[in-house]
Amino acid sequence: MAGLNKVILIGHIGKDPDTFTFDDGTKKISFSLATTESYMDRTTNEWRDQTEWHNIVGYRYLAEKNVAKGDLIYVEGKIKNRKYNDRDGNERYITEILAEKINMLAHPKGVDRNSESDPGNYGNQGNPSAANDEQVKSETSENSTTPEDDLPF
């Protein structure tokens, strides 16, 4: 029977990604991703959060994604374990997620990244009138008192 090595994560980027370009022109991006699960503690009946940190690595076109600290992203890839020697010559092991897909889901609140070069700015790229229409809709909805304004999305 064949094996399957598939990972799907949705989480927030912990720090601005590091990018590196190799001598042959290949680009690499790496960053940490936090995934948080909530559960009910049975002894205290309080909600607890458990956060796991994942090392994400992507190559070529993935290294050109415009992502930053705090962004909520979707990552699809596979688990890779590798061994390396640190500065003192000690063998170290690291587990990474080798990304095959990285998709932007949301920027942190208060961050404005509405530029044409931002791949997260879907639908308005290169169309200033569409961007103006979105701004008018946004301003109109802020003045509206419909129950839909309370939706988190």
Question: How does this structure look, described?
Answer:
There is one protein chain. This protein has 153 residues and is mostly beta strands. The chain folds into 2 domains: 7-111, Nucleic acid-binding proteins (OB fold (Dihydrolipoamide Acetyltransferase, E2P)); 113-144, no CATH class. 10% of the residues lie in helices and 46% in strands. It is built from 1 helix and 6 strands; from the N terminus they run E-E-E-E-E-E-H. It has a 5-stranded mixed barrel with strand order 1-3-4-6-5.
Structure summary:
The chain is mainly β. It has 2 domains: 7-111, Nucleic acid-binding proteins (OB fold (Dihydrolipoamide Acetyltransferase, E2P), Beta Barrel); 113-144, no CATH class. The protein has one helix at 128-143; strands at residues 7-13, 18-21, 27-41, 46-59, 72-85, 91-106.
Please mark out the parts with pLDDT under 50 across 5 or more consecutive residues, or reply none.
115-147
Query: How many beta-strand elements?
Result: 6
- Indicate the percent of residues in helices: 10-25%
Major β-sheet strand ordering: 1-3-4-6-5
Mean pLDDT: 78
Strand content: over 45%
CATH homology-level superfamily of the largest domain: Nucleic acid-binding proteins
Helix-strand pattern: EEEEEEH
Rg over alpha carbons: 20 Å
The structural class is mainly beta
Domain module tally: 2
Can you count the helices? Answer: 1
Q: Tell me, what's the shape?
A: globular
> What is the second-level CATH architecture of the largest domain?
Beta Barrel
CATH level 3 topology of the largest domain: OB fold (Dihydrolipoamide Acetyltransferase, E2P)
| CATH class category of the largest domain | Mainly Beta
Biggest sheet overview: 5 strands, mixed, barrel
Distance between the termini: 43 Å
